[in-house]
Every structure is written in structure tokens, then in C-alpha cells.
Amino acid sequence: MRPLVFALAAIAAVILTPAAALAAPIAIGPAVGAKAPALVATDAAGRPVALQQLSGPRGLVLVFVRSARWCPFCQAQLIDLRGAQDALKAKGYGLAALSYDSPEVLAQFAARRDIGYPLLSDPKSATIDAFGIRDPQYPAGHMAHGVPQPAIFILSRDGVVQASLAEEGYRTRPPTSVVLETVSRLP
Q1: What is the pLDDT of residues 9-45, one digit of tens each?
Q2: Which of 6, 49, 55, 72 lies 20 to 30 angstroms, CA to CA, from 40?
């Protein structure tokens, strides 16, 4: 158990390091100002969800991760985002994370790691593909086929992209502090 804790701490240190010191931001997915694609996903209980259900009065912070089951960088990011949920709610935003994991995997991870925000399942990568962020390096038949390039989209309540945050590669994620700063700067 201790090696896992130390490994997650090391990964979190990478994730929480200021993004400018690690990698350059990249532009992927729908452009700022564009209407986001429809959300085709289920919650960890297997129930279909809609953007309006997940949004706060001002919108939604939608985080795309590769896998809560096998990606340690995603796991560290999902755990770190727990600390942002209340601050985002106070600013009028909901928080949700989406992966290609099954609802069962997401439910188990959420219970084990005390995740209080919705984890969404997109097992056929329909939303991932609609956003145009499927990681092309994994061919059909590969266990990671269908994963997204990690990204965060801040959507208005009516689904317009207000901001997007992504880093080069899958190891570096925009720090939670950057997500909160970005939301604070939105009109």
C-alpha cells in the first residue's frame, strides 16, 4: 500500500507543478466560443446524464481522462480535483470527469477515493470522438483504444466552450489552481 501512496504522491507532484514549468499548453477539441458536442455518457450508476444536470448556474468544468482504472496520472488528477469541487460550486460551476471506463470501474474508483463529483462513462468513446480528442496512437484492439487526450473544457450552461485547458502528452495535466484561475477570469 505504501509504494502506491508514494507513487501517487510523486505523480501528483508532477500534476501540481505549475504547467508553464512542464509543458506547453495545446489546443485540442472544440474552439473557444463554439458549441460543445452533445454529451453521450452515463454516470457511475449507469444512468444517462445531460449537460444541464451536471452544470451549475454558470456552467460545467468537464475533465476528460484516459482511465480511472489503469492511468496513474488520471487517478492523481481525479483525486486532486476533489479539492476544487466546492470552490467551483461557489463560482457557479459543476464538475464532472469523463473516461472510456465502464460505470462499474468508475463507481469503484469513486468509492475507494471518496470522489464526490460525477464520473462519467463513455465506453464507446462517442463523446470523446464528438469532441475530437481521441488519442490516435492506440489502434483498434489495443487496451487503450478509445481513450481521449487529457483535456479540460469549461462550458457555459448552454454548452458553449468558454475555455479549454490541455498539455502536451498524457503525463502533465493543467493544475487545479489553473482551472480555478481560469474560471475566475470568465465573464
Answers
A1: 444 444 444 444 445 678 899 999 999 999 999 999 9
A2: 72
